[in-house]
Amino acid sequence: MLRQLTPQEARKYTEDDPVRPHLSTEFRTTQLREMWGLFEDKYAEYDEPRVEPRAVVCVAYTSCVVASEQELAAHPGDQVATFYTVWSYDRGAGRQIVNQLAQHTLNTKPQVLLLIWLEYSILETVQHLDELPTAAKCLTTQGWC
Fold first, then answer.
1. For each successive 10 residues of the chain (145 residues), what is the average pLDDT?
2. 15: region left, alpha or beta (phi > 0 left; psi from -120 to 50 alpha)
3. Can you give the pTM of this predicted structure?
4. End-to-end alpha carbon distance in the chain
5. Which residues pair with 86 in a beta bridge?
6. Which domains does the chain possess?
């Protein structure tokens, strides 16, 4: 079961983020940014369902394609769903939550035209523009925002 986390719930899991632990719960849950949890179905067949999430994902809704954490905050909007971090507590749950939230977003937010994943360090680690993938090259040279 996919469910948006309240800021109080989100606070419990923010420190578990292995990629962007420096982002605060407030950053993740304000200005068109959300945290979602993937929970076991309450009708689980074998054991009592856990109350803790199997995985957590953060998404920001932006007005354009962004290439950094700073741009997540600078360009709030509703046209692009930017998934920027995910972590799981169960094997395979990270992929499952991203797929379910992508489908949920497409079904419930018709204004969203594009789903993207913010790559953690591609723009920071590549030394030469020639080494960048085409999409990242467009981001750095075209200024999509």
1. 95 95 96 95 60 95 90 92 94 94 94 84 42 42 43
2. alpha
3. 0.79
4. 34
5. 57
6. 2-142 (3.40.630.150)
